Amino acid sequence: MSFDQSHSSCPHQPQPAWQLKQPDLPSDEQDGVIYLFGRRASRLYYTRLDQALILWAIAVAIIFLTARFHAFDWHQQAKVWSALSLSVLVASSLRAWPWALAKQLRWVVYCWIGITLLGLGLTDYGIYRSVIPILLNLSPLWLGLSALGYGITAWGMGSRALGGIALVHLGAIALLWLWPSYAFLITGAVISGCLFALAQFQWDHC
Question: What contacts 200, CB < 8 A, 6 or more positions away?
Answer without folding.
Answer: 21, 50
